[in-house]
Amino acid sequence: MRHAEKIASETGLKVFQVEAVSGLLDSGATIPFIARYRKEMTGSLDEVGIAVVRDRLAALRELDARKEVIISSLNERGLMTEELSEKIEAAQNMSVLEDVYLPYRPKRRSRAQTARERGLEPLADLIWNTDPTADALYEAAADYVNEEAGVTDADAALSGARDIMAERVNEDGDARAAVREYFAAGAVIKSEVVPGKEETGAKFSDYFDLAIPARGVSGHRLLALFRGEREGVLVLSVRPDRDGAVSLLKEMFVKGNNEGSRQISRAVESAYVRLMAPSMEVELRSSLFSAACEEAIGVFAANLRELLMAPPLGRKAVLAIDPGIRTGCKVVCLDKQGKLLDDCVIQIAQSDGLRREAACVLKDLCARYSVEAVAVGNGTYGRETEAFVRSAGLPEGVIVVSVNESGASVYSASDAAREEFPDKDITVRGSVSIGRRLMDPLAELVKIDPKSIGVGQYQHDVDQARLKSALDSVVESCVNSVGVEVNTASRQLLTYVSGIGPSLAENIVKYRDEHGPFKSRSELENVPRLGAKSFEQCAGFMRIADSEEPLDASAVHPERYALVHKMAEDAGKSVSELMGNSSLASSIDIRRYVSDEVGIPTLTDIISELAKPGRDPRKEFEVFKFADGISSLDDLSPGMVLPGIVTNVTKFGAFVDVGVHQDGLVHISELSDGFVNDAAAVVKVGQKVVTKVLSIDKVRGRISLTMRTSSSPEGKKRRDGECRRHQPEKSGPARHSGALGNLGAAFDKAFSRR
Known about the structure:
The protein is α+β, with helices and mostly antiparallel strands. The strands form 5 sheets. It has a 5-stranded mixed sheet with strand order 6-5-4-7-8, with helices on both faces.
């Protein structure tokens, strides 16, 4: 396979691994399928390794495609030479390739082109090749004076010649490579405020007069600068020292000491200022932006994964409440499968009498529908509603959980929500989403555009196509890691199953509605347009709990059913007896079943699945409770120690919900007593933490928190600066009660295992 050796050398992988991944991807296999069911072929590459091969292969193929376009253009115009062909083939990246092509690219009208049309190229050649003295040069230039052509005197002729030489300098591949390297090493980002924008652009005040090296600039600062420029508040330049760059070029092109050399020197300076510097700045900006996007998208993807993989409460009867003050709290009751059973509105903000009536309604609903948990949305009036529910005298054993409702309004107004609940208003749909999110965060969150969940940094500033691709990959990975119960999964959830997509997901749901629940995995092959390839890709990730074939409820792929039946037969047991019996499963000698198609990695996975069939990789659910009596900024004071939940992790720190409707910032310098280089190495979205309040800015609604046992002055200075620059996106950071991580003794009262 073309590029296999190159990718292998760049990534440290084996050539056979790259070739296997390439072949599988080209055949239509998905990353989750390859990682799970083709380990022998890939040498047990995980999803990350497979994605690295996929992305690098795509980049190299894009480079190949561009080479073909350039070669075709050159051949059509009769410009291709053997030397040029070799240079094109040797180009290792787009920048080098475009440098090779630049002298031959069809040009817009330029000063050099005008000079050539005026017949000045021979004069440029004379200067370039012979370095004439002043007398010889002006004598030669006088021969090119032609008033009709616009060359009025010798100086005009020399000016045109310099334009031609400047273009040559700009198009020289070695010169561009040297200046590109100079830019990369020494460019400085300078920003100034646009006069008159000081007040309206106050949020960018830290960048009103800034000069920082472009090399190593943090992605979030760069995106902030670009946003300031885009909004017309800042003027930016991204360039190295001008004189140094010009000197670098002069060393390459100015060899003599006559008047001709001085003319070349002036041409070099013109080439840099007019042509090369602007193009290199655009190129460097693009490179910096791409790296910043990669960083920001990586942060968003990591946060989204933690949120999607938050522990589910599971199949329990849930009463869900969308808090409200003037219009009341919208209440719904859901059965263990998430089906809407009842809905109503209660008023708890107007009077004690209405509160007593609301408490009676909640107790009646809990008794009538055997409610096991109450989910309270964490939006406006959420903390007050949660406190009311806890004091309402609900049946013993009913847990109360504050649930992230970020994005619930997006779902409730969607076509999918209207289709499911055509006779219910938007508030009821939102309450249903809150309840289902407690039961299974992954199944509910896939119905919402990941960008609406708000767990990234500068998500609206990055390349949106790249962001969508990355987030879709995360969702696909999470869905397939957990697996999907075919007979209860929504169309949106099925869409992310390996090999399915929106069209087949719709067909599966339609078939299920028309024919009833699927009785076996093999029945999936009856779904219109779900062919053999799609079945191969999706079957292992689908679950059918009540199938006559017990393996249909596991992650064992149908292509290995015969092998498992052979294992059971050899053990003198049925497959049903084998499943869930970890001691029996572990006693099987898997070496007996190794073949050309099945190796130790797959056999190990099969044994693990037999020991715990259909196991959920998500952690156990934990009920979390915020500190009592803390529901607004007015309740906070410096020095308070509060339990909280991490809602967003960025490169500069973590946002934590402590129960007051405004997330506090734990700056990266305040995450630990030791030095922290990466906030994500210390905390994850959804993790329960213990924080101390450092300061509260009620005017701007900002809270500074620490997780250190002591706070340093340096940390405070850095933290305050970041707090000014980086506030959550307008959609707000997502808050989620599904807990991750370990807690100390100080947190024992905040949560309990369920």
